[in-house]
Write a structure and sequence with these properties.
With about 475 residues, the protein is α/β, with parallel strands linked by helices. The chain has 15 helices and 15 strands. The longest helix is centred in the middle third of the chain and has 31 residues. The radius of gyration is 22 Å and the shape is globular.
Length: about 475
C-alpha cells in the first residue's frame, strides 16, 4: 500500500490542479464491465446470480434501454470518454484510441482532472492503457502483466503448458482457485486499496475500475461455475438469421472461432458447446458481480458512499447464440444494449427516488451527465445530452431516438423500432432492415420492405441521415 500511496502523491505533484474544485464536490466511482449484456437478476433474468449488482440497482436507477454508440470495445470506450459520436472515420474498431481519432478532444477524466479532481484508472477502462494517458492524475494501472497467459489469463497448468503465452487456448476455464488468481480479483483488490488511499485526499476523486470478464475466454474460479447446473441451461430460442435479413446482418463471429475447440465450420456450434459457453459466460458474470460487491462494500466501510456517485455499465453487449452469433460486432440489440446503473448518495437513503428508467439513453450522454451531477462547467465538444432528469425521476422521458453504428451499418433505435441501413463508400445505401419491437423484441423478422411499414421506414431513414450528416 505504501508504494502505491507514494505513486499517487508523485502523480498529484506532477499533474497539479488547473482549477480549484470544491473539495466537498461528489466523488465518482465508475465501474465498467467488459461484454456485459443485461443478463442480470435486476433486469429480470432470474437464472443469473448477480446479488451485488442487483443490490446496487435497487439502491439507484437502472436504465433498461441504454445503448452504446458502437458495439466494439476500443471504439465504444473512446466515444464514451470523449462524448463524441462515432462516424465513418472516427471510433470504428476495437483498437480505436481517443487520442488518435479525436486528438484535440478532452476526455471525461482529463476534463475532471483540469477541474481539480483526482482521476485514476485501474483494469480495463480505455482499451489501450496508453490512450490519453497524460490526462489522468496518475498513470493507469492494469493487471494484464500478472501471471497466467497475458490478457487471456489462464491459470490451469495444462492450458499454460499447451498454449503458451501466444496461442489462444480454450474459450473457458474453471479452476479451483481464489478470486485473485484471475485478473478481476486482482483488480478488485487494487481498487479496495486505492479507495483507502483516496479517502485521505483533500480533493474529490473520479475512480474508474474496469473489470475484464465476462470477455472471452470465460475464465472464472470453480465456485462460480458451481452456481449453475449446465444441464438446465437454456439455449437461445432464435439461433437463426432473421427472416428476410440482409446477408450483411450476420458475421462469422471470428472472435470466438480463434479459440481452441471452436470449429471453423459449420456456422453453428453444437448444443453441448453452446451450453458450455453460456455456462462460462454466466460464471464469469457471477465472478465479476462478487468483485463489484467487494469494491462497493469497501466504499461503504470507508464512509465514502455518503458523497460518491456510482456508475456501473458495460462497454457493449454480447450475443449468446441469438441470430447464430457469438460476439458483439453487430447492429442487433444483443450487441448494442448493455446495463447502465447510477446511484446517487441521496438515493441510498431515499428508495422513492430509485427504480427502473425505461426511457432511451445512449453512452455519448454519459460525459455531460457526469458533468451535471458534479456541477462542473459544460463543454462545447459534447454531442450527447445529460440524462440527469431520469436519474432524479426514473419516470421522466428519455430520448426519442438513439444512434449506434458499426462499420458500414448505421442504426436508429426508437421506443418501438430499430432501423439499420448499410452504406457504401460513395454514400449509396446497400441494404436495410427494420424490426418492430412492439411485436418482435428479439428481432426475428425484417419488415423493412413490407408496405405497411413504408412510412415508418421513411421517417426513420430521414432522422438517420440527418444524424449522419451532423457528426
Amino acid at each position: 500500500m505504501k508504494k502505491y500511496f507514494w505513486t499517487l502523491i508523485v502523480g498529484l505533484l506532477s499533474v497539479g490542479q488547473v482549477s480549484a474544485v470544491d473539495k466537498n464536490a461528489p466523488n465518482v466511482l465508475f465501474i465498467m464491465v467488459d461484454d456485459l449484456r443485461p443478463e442480470l437478476g435486476a433486469y429480470g433474468k432470474t437464472v443469473i446470480k448477480s446479488p451485488n449488482i442487483d443490490k446496487l440497482a435497487n439502491e439507484g436507477v437502472m436504465f433498461t434501454n441504454a445503448y452504446v454508440n458502437v458495439p466494439v470495445c476500443g471504439a465504444s470506450r473512446a466515444s464514451m470518454m470523449t462524448g463524441l459520436r462515432p462516424n465513418k472515420k472516427r471510433f470504428r474498431t476495437f483498437y480505436a484510441r481517443a487520442d488518435e481519432d479525436a486528438e484535440n478532444a478532452k476526455t471525461l477524466f482529463g476534463y475532471l482532472t483540469e477541474q481539480g479532481y483526482h482521476t485514476q484508472s485501474m483494469g480495463k477502462i480505455m482499451h489501450d492503457a496508453g490512450d490519453s494517458v497524460s490526462q489522468w492524475s496518475i498513470a493507469p494501472w492494469k493487471s494484464s502483466s500478472i501471471g497466467g497467459m497475458g490478457h487471456r489469463n489462464y491459470v490451469l497448468e495444462e492450458n499454460i503448458a499447451r498454449f503458451g503465452r501466444v496461442k489462444k487456448g480454450p474459450p473457458f476455464e474453471s479452476a479451483d482457485v481464489e478470486d485473485n488468481a484471475y485478473f478481476d480479483g486482482i483488480i478488485a483488490d487494487h481498487a479496495i486499496e486505492a479507495l483507502s488511499d483516496a479517502k485521505s485526499l483533500d480533493q474529490p476523486f473520479f475512480m474508474a475500475v474496469g473489470f475484464v470478464k465476462p470477455h472471452l475466454p470465460f475464465n472464472a474460479p470453480k465456485r462460480y461455475w458451481d452456481l449453475y447446473n449446465e444441464r438446465d441451461i437454456e439455449l437461445a430460442d432464435n439461433p437463426f438469421q432473421p427472416t428476410n435479413a440482409p446477408v450483411r446482418a450476420v458475421h462469422g463471429w471470428g472472435e470466438l472461432r480463434k479459440f481452441d475447440g471452436i470449429p471453423k465450420k459449420p456456422k453453428l456450434v453444437s448444443d453441448d458447446m453452446a451450453r458450455k459457453l453460456i455456462h462460462g459466460y454466466y460464471a464469469s458474470v457471477s465472478y465479476v458481480d462478487a468483485q463489484v460487491g467487494k469494491v462497493l462494500g469497501e466504499l461503504d466501510a470507508l464512509g465514502l458512499s455518503d458523497n460518491t456517485i456510482v456508475f456501473l455499465l458495460g462497454d457493449h453487449g454480447w450475443s449468446l447464440g441469438e441470430h447464430g452469433l457469438w460476439a458483439k460486432h453487430s447492429p442487433f440489440d444483443h450487441a448494442t444494449k448493455t446495463p447502465l446503473i447510477v446511484r446517487l448518495p441521496s438515493q441510498k437513503e431515499n428508495p422513492a427516488a430509485t427504480g427502473a428508467a425505461h426511457g432511451l439513453v445512449e453512452f455519448v450522454d454519459i460525459f455531460p451527465t457526469i458533468l451535471e451531477l458534479t456541477k462542473q462547467p459544460k463543454l462545447d465538444q459534447l454531442q450527447g445530452s445529460s440524462f440527469v432528469a431520469q436519474i432524479r425521476d426514473p419516470k421522466a422521458p428519455g430520448k426519442t431516438a438513439v444512434f449506434p453504428r458499426y462499420q458500414l451499418a448505421e442504426v436508429i433505435k426508437t421506443e418501438d423500432y430499430a432501423l439499420t441501413e448499410w452504406y457504401g463508400k460513395q454514400g449509396k445505401m446497400l441494404a436495410r432492415m427494420l424490426y418492430d419491437h412492439r411485436v418482435d423484441p428479439e428481432e426475428t423478422h425484417n419488415v423493412a420492405e413490407e408496405p405497411e411499414y413504408s412510412d415508418v421506414v421513411e421517417d426513420l431513414h430521414n432522422q438517420l441521415v440527418a444524424m449522419m450528416e451532423s457528426r
